[in-house]
Amino acid sequence: METAQGFRPHRVVVLALDGLLPFELGIPHRIFGRPKDAGRRHLYEVVTCSVRPPGPVETDADFAIQVAHGPEILATADTVIIPASYELGPVFEEGVLTDELAAALAHIRPGTRLASICTGVYVLAAAGLLDGRPATTHWAEAEHLQRLFPRIKVDADVLFIDDGDILTSAGVAAGIDLCLHMVRRDHGTAVANEVARRTVVPPHRDGGQAQYIHRPVADPQLATTTAARAWALGRLHEPIQLRDMAEQEAMSVRTFTRRFREEVGISPGQWLTQQRVERARHLLESTDLSIDQVARDAGFGTAQSMRQHLQAALGVTPTAYRRTFRAGSGGTGIGVPEGHGGVGSLR
User: What are the start-end ranges of the E strands in 78-145?
Assistant: First the structure.
């Protein structure tokens, strides 16, 4: 970001708690450590801190990590990320913060963006920051989270939820989805896609947690809907009917819709809208096409239809989105508040 003193990278502070999962601790460093602007300057600075003075923090593995910063560094954060821990104690069992953790969180400045990965959400919840707001966590803990914090609107079906200044994600790898989403929100799809390519992960995963919850199925040999999705992606600019997609798999519409939900976690119609929003975002960022042409190429038909869908998903108009994320603009970003119900929440 540009300040009166010149360029300063967005500072992401990762709060390392005892019992943390090393994989999840590494996600923010991997994702936010990659993006650079046109001048090859890092767009983010990632640092790790503990709730105690600098020193070792135990993990759930057979090793500890040495953390160089104490909780005071939280006061310098633009974004704070709390990965999962298996030793949250009273936070997980009773929904209350320890004195040590409460003192650490008190360093965070008002207006700082907050995010959690997996059970890190319990820390935000115990601090009272999620009351009356939507949140998610690993599907296996969602029911417990809801019982412990009845004022939270827990959604166990999504990979992550963007509620503006607070974001929460499902378990483990969903932290990658969340961090890529924040990069996309800050600097656009081109920057996020480049990070995803270098990390060898999809820039945007279809569906929600529903596809990962084990459920008995009658016939595991039934055909998937993969071919239909590939067929539709090549024809987003054309009108696509549900029966057209079903025909690609030689299924009835009813069977296809059921199988699609089982595999992807959302309906075919919701999936198509998501893909068209992503296509429109890419075209708005990377081309000089008119708004009307972008709408046609993305499959929305009219500029008004595209405007309505982007407003619902991103909270901004196509013109405002292009002005903010135009390729070559330096990637300043606006922090698009998608909210519950937008692309991030996969509803």
Answer: 79-82, 113-116, 134-135
Task: Mention every residue, 6+ apart, whose C-beta is less than 8 A from residue 73.
Answer: 13, 47, 49, 107
Q: Rounded CA gap, 344 and 347, in Å?
A: 8
User: In 10 A of CB 29, how many CB atoms?
Assistant: 17
SS3 272: helix
Cα separation values, 25 from 49, 176, 201, 246, 300, Å: 11, 11, 17, 41, 40
Token readout for 16 is: 């390392």
pTM across the whole model: 0.73
Per-residue pLDDT tens over the stretch 45-97: 999 999 999 999 999 999 999 999 999 999 999 999 999 998 999 999 999 99
Q: Give the C-alpha separation, 136 to 271, whole Å.
A: 20
Q: What is the DSSP string of 151-187?
A: TSEE-TT-SEEE-SSEEEE-STTHHHHHHHHHHHHHH
